[in-house]
Amino acid sequence: MTIRAALRTPDVIRQAREHLSRGQLPVDLLDASIGRSWQRCLDHGLLPGTRLELPRLDSGELRLQREAHRRLIELADPLVSRAVEDLRGCQLLLATPDATVLKSYGRDFVIDQRLRIGAGINLDERRFGTNAPALALIEEAPVLVKSCEHLLFPDNPVSCVAAPLFDLDGSCLGLIDLTFEANHPRPEIFLRRVQQLTGALGQRLFMHHYQQRWVLQVHASLAELDGVSCGLVAISDTGFILAVDSQAGRWLGQAASSLTGQPVEALFGSPWPALQRQCERQSALLGLELTDGRLFGRLNPPEQWQPAEVVPVASPPPAALRLGRQLDDLVADWPPPLAREARRAARALASGLPVLLQGDTGTGKEQLARALHASLGEQRPFVALNCAALPESLIEAELFGYGDGAFTGARKGGYGGRLVQANGGTLLLDEIGDMPLTLQARLLRVLQERVVTPLGDHREVPIDCEVIAASHRDLEELVAAGDFREDLFYRLAAVVVELPALNEQAGLAARIRERWEALCRAHGRDLTLDDALVERLAGYPWPGNWRELEHCLEAALVGAEPECREVGLEALSPRWQRKLNAGGIATCCDRLPATPATADSPQELRELERLHMLRTLDAHGGNMTAAARALGISRSTLYRRLG
Q: Has this prediction a pTM greater than 0.85?
């Protein structure tokens, strides 16, 4: 497939129609599913310009169809009715498994001045030609059909997306179609929207069927555990798995059939009765340790689980962006200028501009990146790649993907790569400052052309994702030193947010208490922090920033005795007691020798280096960030060498 076919532009489809007029089906110029549809239409004798006589059900026939599909309508009607309020200028259709429209919501579109799309019409491909509802049913997957791809209507004024809805036994219940004006610049937004709707409907189906059972929600991201992309597992009162939906099977890495009938203890590593007691009255947050990573889970008692609400998405998104609650909560106690920058970054990201986050290790760059992603207001993939954690050869394969047999040990069938995984969502390039220069050039080309070529493959795969870059290193300094491409820097730095170190932030004591309360809720404990301990914690320099603080708090929480009600300094480990009693490393400066010494051994050289760092720290009033900047090293490196 060529790049032009993948982009599915009107010019490319116009060329395809010219080939078709000469009796040739130009498969290489069409999306694969569209090409298959055009071929079927030709097999049925349908050609562009064919005059259609489409049957439409009368009122009595339509009433019978609605009665026969009452369950589908009762399930979908509340969600679709709310969704259409946020999709002004669009039309939503609810249709049967044979593509008969049961209900139409919102605007009524007229196709080619002859056909009004509404309730009672049948959109079977053999009658109507290529269209999203028919194609979604045939492909059994969500589809986008752009205006010019409707074979019988070359001047069609609308594009459409559709997704099928499957029952718990895998049979098709019906579908949802969303039709919108053809000139919309980002039709993929509507495809994600209709997938949201069918995902939420699938959850409601599961809930209605298993409302008398325990329900486990699972997801790789805690922030998305309550969204429509979470997986669901139904559990019996005796602790055996009754059913697993497709999303849960994907997160757990196993087919639903292999999990059904198994004891749920295998997922948790804890006895089922203990888990039941933990959430007799309310849902409990759990961690699931799997062989290939960690998942988050929430176990809900019978009749207490509520399905996710579909997040409204206005059209177009930049004009009606509503910042996510997660971002508002995150920046609530930030200094006003920094909070404004974070919100500005959210608006920029929603408009398709990249965002760069700078700050020391542990200052919360990934947390802010996830909040910015959530502020887009949709259930979209969030994919992160740590450029400092992989050697150069692996970064290239992980980011750009590779084809089948691209190198020894390559995965059979190839690997799409993080850029493709992030399609339709957000890609976080963490520690971008550590990316090798050779790969920076490839990344720049991908960001400019919005296509990626996997290693060992000739295909050019289109991508559509927002990009957030993050680094603890000063990228402008790296550019000046020749270690980072200037053109890539300006491509990534449309909006830059600089996160201050933890000990430079105001109101730290209050934020420590808030984080402690959140951890207590997550672990199901009711403990308070001693005032004296909070004061010690707020006065500690925290070289590891938020990450180090969180580890300290969580270790104190999980290590507290069952009868404990208040956690003080004595409840911490001896290591943390020593660190907090030290009162900060700057106090060491009082004991520095007045004159420099000479070094006769590597050990003495290291001690001289340490003394120089301590003097620099003293000269900057104990400010670790300022001292590190003066020494030309990172704050975390300074603390590590002094420790």
A: no
Total domain count, the chain: 5
Task: Provide the CATH number for the domain around residue 235.
Answer: 3.30.450.20
Neighbour-count burial for 202-230, b at 16+ CB within 10 Å, e otherwise: bbbbbbeebeebbbbbbbbbebbbebbbb
Burial class of residue 563 in the structure, from the number of CB atoms within 10 Å of its CB (0-12 exposed, 13-18 middle, 19+ buried): exposed
Between the alpha carbon of residue 153 and those of residues 35, 46, 572, the distances in Å are 16, 11, 72
Q: 262 and 397: one domain?
A: no
What CATH number is associated with residue 569? Answer: 1.10.8.60
Domain that includes residue 174, residue range = 59-205
Question: 599-607: long-range contacts at Cβ-Cβ below 8 A with a sequence spacing of 24 or more?
Answer: none
Q: Give the single-character DSSP code of 570.
A: G
Indicate the pLDDT class of residue 407, thresholds 50, 70 and 90.
Answer: low
Q: What is the distance between the alpha carbons of residues 470 and 308, in angstroms, rounded to a whole number? A: 31
Structure tokens, 341:
């920058």
Is the pLDDT confidence value at 65 over 90? yes
Angle at 229 between CA 309 and CA 66, to 5 degrees: 60
Same structural domain for residues 360 and 480? yes
Task: Please determine, for residue 322, whether its predicted confidence score (pLDDT) is greater than 50.
Answer: no
Are 349 and 230 in a shared domain?
Answer: no
Strands 426-430 and 382-386: parallel
Give the separation between CA 387 and CA 431, rounded to whole angstroms: 5
pLDDT of residue 6: 43
Res 427 pLDDT > 60: yes
Torsion angle of the four alpha carbons 621, 625, 630, 634, in this order, in degrees rounded to the nearest 10: 150
CA distance 136 to 145: 10
What phi and psi values does residue 363 have, to the nearest 5 degrees?
A: -80, -5
Strands 172-181 and 214-219: what pairing?
A: unpaired
CA–CA distance, 106 with 117 (Å, rounded to integer): 12
Spatial separation of the C-alpha atoms in residues 181 and 200, rounded to whole Å:
25
